[in-house]
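yo

u said u wanted the structure for the complex thing, so here. seqs first:
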Amino acid sequence: MDQSTASPEERQDADLPFDVFSKRCPSRGLLEHATGRWGSLTLGALYEGSLRFNALRRRVDGVSEKMLSQTLHALERDGLVHREAQLVNPPRVDYELTPLGREVAERLLGLIHFVEGRMSEVLAARERYDAAREV
Amino acid sequence: MDQSTASPEERQDADLPFDVFSKRCPSRGLLEHATGRWGSLTLGALYEGSLRFNALRRRVDGVSEKMLSQTLHALERDGLVHREAQLVNPPRVDYELTPLGREVAERLLGLIHFVEGRMSEVLAARERYDAAREV
DNA sequence: CAGCATCCTATCCGATACTG
DNA sequence: CAGTATCGGATAGGATGCTG
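structre next:
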């Protein structure tokens, strides 16, 4: 686009090979896996340490077996989560973050804790918004 | 805000009133609005400055009129985006981040730029994963 | 315990048409 | 320009039943 005269301020997203704002960029898919309804909570839960399937399921309150399985597959495929299966009976499988996954989870948790801390503001904004329309 | 005796390290998520990991916490809804497919891109686009509806639509490549409208309503209701309408003809409406929205967008952009920068690792992980199963 | 397969519903979302 | 309304296909996601 503009590779000769871009200032340092513009460079940030001017000539990156991957730009999430363009329709066909694969980074959108990753972002959706990582920030999706279950993806963000799964990464957040695993940040504290490795967990087995059912422990994870209890930690991510409300996730179904199917969705957790699907989410873990996507995150494993993207290289954010590592699956460690032991061939014992009963079976034991541990999930843990990869180094890359840790970095993503860190940023995600920063966001999560931030919004948790500001929920009262959000709730108030919602009430104001709703009150203004139901007249 | 900090009226308990929790240490600074624990305070963050030890006794917060809002916990995104529990099923019925309203912070989940906010997180989904902010990190959803179009929410994150909309907030990211508005971080650079206020934009009009159609400019925003062009910036968030691929978003439909309907989804952008819906996304903006949700973000406005949550108090992350401010809608400024001028009663002129043709109509002119500007969207901009609220102070709270800026803080969310900042963290979101941190994540976005991070994943953009690591996409090659992710793509490689995906190839490895796919190659391992199609045997 | 750690899952996969199937069915079914709710919602997401794009396309199209229309309004002030 | 800045939206709203409606339709229909695609997908997310819950419930249930089964396997190693």
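Residues 52-54, 65-66, 69, 85, 89-93 of chain B lie near DNA strand D (CB under 10 Å from a C1'). Chain B has seven helices and three strands.
cya
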